[in-house]
Amino acid sequence: MADYGAQLLWLRGEQDFLGNRYSRRHMLRFDGGVEIAASSSPHVVPVPMSDPAAVDPEEAFVAALASCHLLWFLSIAARRKFCVDSYADSPLGVMARNSEGKLAMTVVTLRPQVAFSGSRLPTPAEVVEMHHQAHAECFIANSVKTEVRCEPVFAAGTADSSTDD
Q1: Which domain holds residue 124?
Q2: Inside any domain, residue 66
Q3: Which residues of 27-64 are buried (b: 16+ CB within 10 A; e: fewer)?
Q4: 162 part of a folded domain
Q5: Which residues cross the membrane (predicted)?
Q6: Is the predicted pLDDT of residue 161 greater than 70, yes or no?
Q7: Same domain membership, residue 35 and residue 85
Q8: Are 65 and 145 found together in one domain?
Q9: What is the DSSP string of 130-152?
Q10: Same domain (yes/no): 103, 66
């Protein structure tokens, strides 16, 4: 078992807190020293009280799911002796009412595009299986109720990459 944490800091300064006219911008700090500007989403709290240039919790949630999946996929591919040259994804989360009628991130769709090289290339079926296994192992996906879909995009770098699955 391991513990994971972060630090958050928000300061009111001279802002009109009681009048609900305060910035939602804050800082996230992680154990390696990385600091990221964070804010509420402008879809939830209008600008200028939110900062569209900062990471919002919804984006961070989608990114955490995609990052966890990526790391598991790379590990699985390496164990299976498939050389991954690149992995790109543009995950998309959908905020909607869940079965309890509450706003929630109800679906996150990953669209990974992986390029391989070497004499041993995975078939599209093997790529799909590695994505399935990565999803099953992902700590973040195993921690949430959100439906997480994986729709791999095939390009050059898989055996028989012209095959549609």
Answers
A1: 57-150
A2: yes
A3: ebeeeeeeeeebbbbbeebeeebbbeebebebeebbbb
A4: no
A5: none
A6: no
A7: no
A8: yes
A9: HHHHHHHH-TTGGG--SEEEE--
A10: yes
DSSP code for 56: P
**pLDDT tens figures, 125-147:** 999 999 999 999 999 999 998 88
Q: Residue 88 above 70 pLDDT? A: yes
Other beta carbons within 10 Å of 7:
10
**Tokens standing for residue 115:** 């390029």
Cα 150 from Cα 90, distance rounded (Å): 11
- The CATH number given to whatever domain includes residue 121 is 3.30.300.20
The CB-side HSE value for 108 (13 A sphere, CA atoms) comes to 26
Q: What is the pLDDT of residues 28-40, one digit of tens each?
A: 999 989 999 999 9
Angle, helices 57-79/124-137, rounded to nearest 10 degrees: 120
| Residue 15: C-alpha distances to residues 8, 19, 51 (Å) | 18, 9, 15
DSSP element (H, E) containing 8: strand 7-9
**Long-range contacts at 92-96 (CB < 8 A, ≥ 24 apart):** 92/62, 93/58, 93/59, 93/61, 93/62, 93/146, 95/43, 95/58
Number of domains composing the chain: 2
The verdict on 40 and 84 lying in the same domain is no
